[in-house]
Specification:
Blueprint: H1 2-29, E1 37-42, E2 45-47, E3 52-60, E4 67-70, E5 73-74, E6 77-81, E7 84-90, E8 98-106, E9 112-113, E10 117-122, E11 127-132, E12 135-137, E13 144-150, E14 156-160, E15 163-165, E16 167-171, E17 174-178, E18 188-196, E19 206-211, E20 216-221, E21 233-239, E22 246-249, E23 252-254, E24 257-260, E25 263-267, E26 278-285, E27 291-292, E28 296-299, E29 306-311, E30 314-316, E31 322-329, E32 335-339, E33 342-344, E34 346-348, E35 353-358, E36 367-375, E37 383-391, E38 401-403, E39 415-416, E40 427-434, E41 438-445, E42 451-461, E43 464-471, E44 478-488, E45 493-502
Parallel strand pairs: 2-10, 12-19, 30-37
Antiparallel strand pairs: 1-3, 3-7, 4-5, 4-8, 6-7, 8-9, 8-10, 11-13, 13-17, 14-15, 14-18, 16-17, 18-19, 20-21, 21-25, 22-23, 22-26, 24-25, 26-27, 26-28, 29-31, 31-35, 32-33, 32-36, 34-35, 36-37, 38-43, 39-40, 40-43, 41-42, 41-44, 44-45
Length: about 500
């Protein structure tokens, strides 16, 4: 009996426990899900066409089955805790700019929709990462500037110092700007930005440094044409020269004449013009950039002018003075010609040509006279020597005086020179050159082709420079022509004709 009572009591206890579990389970299964509450999100915004990211959501009443919605679209959601969940936002949600609703949904039973938090999608921010080159030299002829960055589009304009510059869109990370020549005239740090003409936004700025180039010397000589006085100016050849460049000679600064970016001319003072003087030469460009070039050593050497030809090289005694053309080498504006040791007015034409004023008094006496060269600084030094001959008259006809001679300088080619003076009245000198002994005919014609004077008729002449004085006599004013033929011993034939004008 006692055993039976114990068994009944045990079964009653088991039934009680099972019933309690069932009641608890039923109670739990019937409980509603809470309504979620959204506090904040991270991040709260992004740029348009972002490749996608994980959104962290913070709040309360989150459950395992909570779902994050992005503007009504369910996102893949991961439960972290009742106060935090995560959701992946794909790029497809980030195509357009604007403000979008973020909410949390807890499913039934119970549950519901949370409050709304806004997420913003903005246009991409244009960013300059670098420019190439990072600096340019003053006066640089290359005006291209490459801009490397992010989020570039076709509606962007590069601004240089706040002003628009022509811009070429390459791709979303590369723009090309064309600067203006005047942009590179002065040194400085100029801000470069990218401006969006649609949104009105502007990128960060990066400075382009404009500096003076560093000069370099490769050669020094005195052969530059066009310098005011070539003999007393150095020509410096190299690179990166400008109008701002200064020459340093033996530690003293000298002004330069800018020729181009590879050439400078430096007029030298006379105190440096000692033959054998050693000059240490460099070029300095100012800061920023710039600096001093390498140093080159130059030794002053005397450049000796040389006479190659006088034209004419003779005159008949008693004739009027004239301008004699001198052809040669190494002439300068300081070169002066002397007639028999006396200086004569000299007109510089080029390094190879000049005119010398021969006076009427120089032609008063028959003789052979020296023509020498000197310069304005060292008048006591005479260079080179040529001879000028004053002949006596030798009458061939009533109207024409003839001088027939061989010059000390034998010509290289047959040449019929222009008569001098021209126009003339009544006399003029006809000059021609023979490289070889030749049989010569020289005639004068009027404007309709009639021969009016035969100066030479099949005459044998030696090689040299020949001068014939033609007297117009009773001829009237007008145009006339003189024609020469010359046949040398080797069978070479020469013919030439020139016009002369008689004005009475």
């Amino acid at each position: 009996m006692k055993q039976r009572i114990i068994n009944i009591s045990m079964w009653s206890r088991i039934v009680y426990i099972v019933a309690l579990i069932l009641i608890t389970t039923i109670a739990v299964m019937g409980q509603d899900n809470p309504v979620p509450a959204l506090a904040n999100i991270n991040p709260m915004s992004c740029e348009q066409r972002n490749p996608g990211f994980t959104l962290s959501v913070f709040g309360s009443n989150f459950i395992v089955s909570s779902v994050v919605q992005f503007y009504g679209k369910d996102l893949v959601t991961t439960f972290i805790s009742a106060s935090e969940i995560e959701a992946y936002v794909p790029q497809s949600c980030l195509v357009n700019t604007g403000s979008y609703e973020i909410v949390i949904i807890n499913p039934a039973p119970g549950g519901g929709r949370s409050n709304v938090v806004s997420f913003s999608i903005s246009k991409p921010v244009t960013q300059i990462n670098s420019i190439s080159p990072e600096f340019k030299y003053i006066g640089d002829s290359d005006q291209r500037l490459d801009i490397i960055g992010e989020n570039f589009s076709a509606n962007l304009v590069v601004k240089f110092g706040g002003s628009d510059r022509p811009t070429t869109y390459d791709n979303s990370t590369h723009l090309v700007a064309s600067l203006y020549p005047e942009d590179l005239n002065e040194s400085g740090n100029i801000p470069v930005t990218v401006f969006n003409s649609i949104s009105g936004s502007e990128s960060n700025e990066i400075n382009l440094s404009i500096v003076y180039p560093h000069p370099s010397i490769s050669r020094i000589d005195t052969s530059l044409e066009g310098v005011e006085d070539r003999r007393f100016a150095l020509t410096i050849s190299g690179s990166n020269f400008g109008i701002y460049s200064v020459a340093v000679i033996n530690s003293v600064n000298y002004r330069t004449m800018f020729v181009d970016t590879q050439t400078l001319s430096v007029p030298l003072p006379t105190d440096l013009l000692t033959t054998g003087a050693v000059l240490n030469i460099a070029v300095i460009n100012p800061l920023p950039g710039g600096g001093e070039s390498n140093t080159m050593v130059f030794t002053i050497q005397c450049v000796i002018p040389k006479i190659l030809k006088l034209s004419p090289s003779s005159r008949i005694v008693g004739t009027n003075g004239f301008l004699m053309k001198v052809t040669g080498q190494n002439f300068t504006k300081n070169t002066i010609a002397k007639f028999n040791g006396l200086s004569r007015q000299t007109t510089y034409l080029s390094v190879t040509e000049m005119f010398v004023n021969i006076l009427t008094t120089d032609l008063k006496s028959v003789g052979v006279y020296s023509i020498t060269l000197t310069d304005r600084i060292s008048m006591d030094i005479e260079y080179n020597k040529a001879t000028f001959t004053v002949f006596s008259s030798k009458t061939k006809t009533d109207n024409n005086e003839i001088v027939n001679r061989t010059n000390a300088i034998v010509p290289e080619n047959n040449i019929l020179a222009q008569n001098y003076p021209n126009p003339f009245n009544p006399n003029t000198v006809i000059n021609f050159e023979l490289p070889n002994r030749s049989t010569v005919t020289l005639k004068v014609y009027n404007s309709i082709g009639q021969a009016i004077e035969t100066i030479l008729d099949q005459e044998e002449l030696s090689a040299g420079i020949q001068n014939y004085n033609f007297n117009s006599g009773s001829l009237s004013s007008g145009e006339y022509f003189y024609h020469i033929t010359a046949d040398d011993e080797a069978g070479q034939h020469y013919s030439s004709i020139k016009k002369m004008i008689l004005i009475k």
